[in-house]
Design a protein that fits this description.
With about 170 residues, the chain is an all-beta fold. About 0% of the residues lie in helices and about 40% in strands. The strands form three sheets. A six-stranded mixed beta sheet has the order 6-7-12-11-9-10, with no helix packed on it. A four-stranded antiparallel beta sheet has the order 2-1-3-4, with no helix packed on it.
Length: about 170
């Protein structure tokens, strides 16, 4: 689950003699029992397994044996990279030149819950699901891209600037 995913606890007193549920209790990792009052999240905890104990107490003070829930916490967004295929050239100033035949590929990685979606947009266009793509019109283009994982963590938009050059050079004899 993500660190903002709410976890809800409910209880039922379904015995032969029913006094009714008085309270629900939670015990967070390395904590003490507390009365459950509203859905909880795991903000501020590190990625990885988290255990939470829970139990119910009825109005006659009968206390249920506690249950342990172990979840895998994923608070880290995926990481996406953009790779220009060939032909491409980067000058000393860091400007990348490509042609309309250059295939641009996005690759995303998420070690915990996995990648659910990768999107990109060129200049002011709409966001598009990722697939290898090209840019056809000559000139400067800014490509924005990001990925989202299976629990909703989205990385901050990244950008890549490329200059599409489809014009062949000319020779001059003097």
């Amino acid at each position: 689950v993500g660190n903002a995913t709410p976890v809800t606890l409910t209880g039922d007193d379904a015995g032969v003699v029913v006094s009714g549920v008085d309270k629900l209790e939670l015990r967070p990792p390395d904590g003490s029992w507390g009365v459950y009052q509203a859905p909880v999240t795991f903000a501020g905890l590190n990625d990885g397994p988290v255990t939470v104990d829970h139990r119910a107490v009825d109005k006659a003070t009968n206390t249920e044996e506690f249950h342990r829930l172990t979840i895998s916490l994923d608070a880290t967004p995926p990481v996406t990279s953009l790779s220009p295929g060939l032909p491409n050239y980067s000058d000393a100033a860091g400007t990348t030149y490509i042609t309309s035949a250059t295939l641009l590929t996005l690759t995303a990685f998420d070690a915990l819950s996995g990648v659910s979606a990768t999107e990109y947009k060129s200049d002011a266009a709409a966001w598009t699901p990722s697939a290898p793509f090209t840019l056809s019109s000559e000139g400067n283009h800014t490509i924005f891209y990001h990925s989202k994982d299976n629990v909703g963590n989205q990385e901050t938009d990244k950008s890549f600037v490329a200059v599409v050059d489809n014009t062949a050079p000319v020779t001059i004899i003097t």
